[in-house]
Every structure is written in C-alpha cells, then in structure tokens.
Amino acid sequence: MAHTPIKKVCLVGANGTLGSVILKGLIQADCFDISVLQRSNSSSSSPSSIPRILVPPELPVEDVAKALTGQDAVIAAFPLGQGDQHLRLAEAAFQAGVQRFIPADFGSCDASDPEPQKYLPLYRKKTLVREKCEALAVQATQHGSAFSWTTVICGHFFDHGLRDGLLHIDFDTRTAQILDGGATKASTSTLRRIAEATVRVLQRAEQTRNRAVYVQSFNPSQLDVVAALEKAMGEPWHMQHIDSKPYLEDAQKRLKSEEPQAVLDAIEDIVFVLGALDADWTKRDGFAMDLLGLEDENLEDVVQEVVAAYRAEGSK
Fold first, then answer.
1. Whole-prediction pTM value?
2. What confidence tens digit (pLDDT) does each residue in 55-70 have?
3. What does the H/E/C string look like for 50-112?
4. Domain residues of the chain, as ranges?
5. Distance between CA atoms of residues 117 and 177, nearest Å
6. CA atoms of 71 and 97, how far apart (whole Å)
C-alpha cells in the first residue's frame, strides 16, 4: 500500500517527563498537525494551541479507534503500567488506519534482550507490546492496510536520570555508585535527543518502517561521567564500587517485599544496572544515528547543564 508523508500526529502522555519534551520537539519541528489524546477524567493540561482528543479512561479499543481515525501517527509516551492499555492503543491505531505507531519502548535497555526479560515483568510487558505491533504489521501487509511501527531504544534518560538520582549519582554528597569497575560503555540519551529521534523517525517514515532504531546522545562509561562531573563542579567525587551480580540478586529478593516502596526501589536498582551494563547501541545492527541524521552531543556540555540546574535549584 502506498504511504503518504506523515502529517497528523497524535501524542498520548503529553504531560509526562518524556511526553512533554516530545510534544515540544514536535512543535519545534513545525511540520506536523499535532493533537493530544487524553483520558476524559484527566486533569492534565496541554498548550491551548494543541487540540485535545478525549477518550474513556480505560482506553476501550472501539472508542479510541474512532478518536484516532484520520491520524497518520500515534506516539505512546505514558508509563506502561499493566501493559493492557498499550496493547489496546496499538490495536486501536491499527483499526483506525494509522500509518505509524511508536510504542512506549523508550528507556534503559532493549526490553527484548534475554537479560532484561529475566529480571523484570516491565520488560516482558514491553516486549508483548512490540510483538503486538509486529503481528499487526503482518496483518496490515495481508490486508493492504497502512499500519506500521517503529520502536525507539535510547538507553537511560541521561539528564533526567542524572538530576533525579536514577543513575545513582548523588549531587549533595558528591557520590556515585560504580558498577564492576565502571569502564563499561553504555549508550544514553538526553530527553531532547529522544524527542529529536522521534521526530526524525516520523520524517523518515519509509526508512524506519517496522523496525527498532537505537539512538544515543553519547556512549560514556560510568568513569567518564564521574570525570565530567568532577570537571564541571571543580572538586573530586567519591566512588562507591559495587559488584553487579550480588547487587542484582539482592534487588530480585526485594521485588518480593510486601512494602510497595521497597519494590519500586528494587525495580529502579535493576533498571540502573541493566542500563549501565547492557546498553552499548553502537554494537547493534539497528544503530540508527546516521539513518536519522543525528550526531552525538557533548558529554561535558550536558553534564555542565545539569550541574548548573542543580546549583540554581540550591540557590533558591
């Protein structure tokens, strides 16, 4: 089936940590008609210039498909949760005749790899959504539908994770947890890079059709990041060296805790390890920086930005 350029783009999760930055990127691209899909019971707001499409909170397929009719692309940028809503959203996009669906597969590692699958249900749920997209794309080919998908795999959210402690770096104590010596390189992306990559996927629809694209801002080791922090702050940092194997084993045990916060902490710890040790996209066949026309950012410049924001917050 012939595909027309993607013009009408609907974003789901526009008020989230990543979704808000993707929305900004779509607006700055100045080549899309953008809308935001929201649950009818949501209190979130969006820019007044961006149309809102309201659907029932449970995202029933029939209602969402009707709401998405006429859209060229749908981007899912809201937390996976149980995963069922994301499966329904993909199905609704297919039924609505949407050309491109981008699932919420952004994040620390490739969810379909064996190691992540072993540790967390989160990654198994992400993989189920990707498999759903693959199956829908096969149906689309068989029935002459336009539906296709692209998943954007970006590594840790670097600036957000650095600022909020998700990379286990503590600005107040100048302490960084370092895994297995800290020399392993891992691809990681700023929020703006993820938004930029998402825009490029839509602009290069044929080249990115029915595949995963691996992107990054840069590919540093943990030791590289600490060195950049020391340079930006003009003082030495303390490195707490950790052996990843017992650390992961302990986190797995904590997943069984009856305390919700303990479980959340365990999930965060597992995500931290996998994104630091199993995320070198430069070695993947799907490494798509050249395909998307992207170049690495400068690690020291980005770290300096985060440090400046930290200091500004402390001066208030």
1. 0.95
2. 998 899 999 999 999 9
3. CCEEEECCCCCHHHHHHHHCCCCEEEECCCCCCCHHHHHHHHHHHHCCCCEEECCCCCCCCCC
4. 8-156+188-214, 157-186+218-280+295-314
5. 24
6. 8
Q: Which fold has domain 157-186+218-280+295-314?
A: UDP-galactose 4-epimerase; domain 1 (3.90.25)
Q: To the nearest 10°, report the CA torsion of 298, 299, 302, 308.
A: -130
List the one residue out of 294, 111, 311 whose CA is nearest residue 201: 294
CATH architecture entry for 8-156+188-214: 3-Layer(aba) Sandwich (3.40)
| Parts of the chain with a pLDDT under 50 | none
The span from the CA of 126 to the CA of 55, in Å, is 23
The two tokens of residue 206 are 């044929």
Containing H/E element for 148? strand 148-153
**CB-CB contact of 198 with 102 (8 Å):** yes
